[in-house]
Amino acid sequence: MHQTEEALQTVLQDTFALYAQVLDRHQAKLRSQEIGIVQSIGQGIARIIGLPHVQSEEIVRFAGGSLGMVFNLDPDEVGVILLDSSDKLQSGTEVRRTGKVLDVPVGDTLLGRVIDPLGRPLDGKGAVRTSGRRPAERDAPPIMDRSPVNVPLQTGIKAIDALIPIGRGQRELILGDRQTGKSALALDTIINQKGKNILCIYCAIGQRSAAVAKLIADLYEQGAMAYTTVVMAAGEEPPGLQFVAPYAATAMAEYFTDQGRDVLIVYDDLTNHARAYRELSLLMRRPPGREAYPGDIFYIHSRLLERSTHLNAERGGGSLTSLPILETEAQNMAAYIPTNLISITDGQIYLSPVLFQKGVLPAIEIGKSVSRVGGKTQLPAYRSVSGDLRLSYSQFEELEAFSRFGTRLEESTRLTLERGRRVREILKQKQYAPMAAAVQIAVLLSVTAGLFDRVPIAKIAIAEQAIAQAISTQLPDMSLQIESGSVLTDADRHALLKIAENAIAIVLEV
């Protein structure tokens, strides 16, 4: 008898639980059918009355199909940021809840495509068919799910790989004044990932459509679009779409990371992202703070960049490396947004307009650039040259500045300046010309060992090409050996220097 009562009680509990679930779904359906009315339309925003149960960051749908995201929940109205054009919207337009937060398509079919932050195609290749969807906003992985950053991400750029190394899972800020080569640096890094089993996502925020179209054409020409997805919110798009773009792109990247794959994401650029958020906040009458930015401007970037990580083995071991790009004004790194992002990221690569004007490309200012965790990931072979190179180059820059005030120089000072000028010439690199690790090390070893001292500056680029060709033909396995983490032995150094010396001798004879 007692067992019968217990069984009956269990059945009743299950029945009530099922009834509660059905009731919740019914209430949710009723709430999603709530209808609001557009009270007013602004530049990229709408104010709505009605929708009493709508939630923050919920997606709403306007009559006609346009989408918006709830931004403000005021007592008498709802502030919505528009994710589509507002040309067809007017006061009195109906608005319905969707009951969902912003989600984006994810999957392997996104590779090679150009899409907007909502997953709609922009490349004329038809609809994007993916395996699933993910919310654009997501909590960053907890500390216990992360592993140390200990695997390098090779950029193919000598100045970075040797002096400012980047690790997989790192956040390395690229900043500088406009037109100093920031996007070109990120583009070269994407191109260098060809054949390295690293997927790439390029997120264009507030850029000119023509500039992004040229970048996409370059990716196709270099064969990099096969492993790259371009997420684009151009400057003419609503500020709301520009605001959600980096979060949507990160959600697409995290799909691959959770599968144990390595991903590189470029945010170009977060200056436009901050401006879009400031515009939306001011239109919504949120209180302005320093430089009219809202008080949570730091949070919108920290919650984005904290999602970059190297997951531990239990989570699959994938990594998400981010290269946020930032534009400075008049070389002012101490402005509000730059200092915010410098404090969030794990280092910065600063591009100087002075070096750019002098023709030193890439215009990386070594003294102001740093990688706070990349040194632990750097390939062991680089460590035999990077320390001496950075110190000697910094000393040369100071000595060069002081030497302008003197007419007579000691012989040792003159030799130091001559070597420094050759180091600076060696660190120059053409765009779309990534360099293998073995060639980089051979060239840097040669310049620190003084092999370039007798080479005229006009012939240094020719000598460098001769060394690269000699290394690839005479030591074809050296790059694989170095990239596998092997330490550079004395015999290896001797072999590299001998090949470089012979190549330089041939150039000097011509």
Give an overview of the whole structure:
With about 500 residues, the chain is α/β, with parallel strands linked by helices. Helix content is about 40%, strand content about 15%. It has 15 helices and 16 strands. The longest helix is centred in the N-terminal third of the chain and has 31 residues. The N and C termini lie far apart (about 105 Å).
- The computed structural class is alpha/beta
CATH superfamily of the largest domain, called what?
Answer: P-loop containing nucleotide triphosphate hydrolases
The level of helicity is 40-55%
Give the domain tally.
3
Shape: elongated
Low-confidence sequence ranges: none
Output the CATH topology of the largest domain: Rossmann fold
**CATH architecture descriptor of the largest domain:** 3-Layer(aba) Sandwich
Largest sheet: 8 strands, mixed
Strand content: 15-25%
CATH class division of the largest domain: Alpha Beta
Order of adjacent strands in the largest pleated sheet: 8-12-11-13-14-10-15-16
Number of beta strands: 16
If you compute it from the alpha carbons, what radius of gyration comes out, rounded to the nearest whole angstrom? Answer: 28 Å
Mean pLDDT: 91
* Count of alpha/pi helices: 15
Amino- and carboxy-terminal Cα gap? 107 Å
Which keywords apply here?
510 residues; Rossmann fold; elongated; eight-stranded mixed β-sheet; 42% helix; six-stranded antiparallel barrel; Elongation Factor Tu (Ef-tu), domain 3; alpha/beta; 16 strands; Lysin
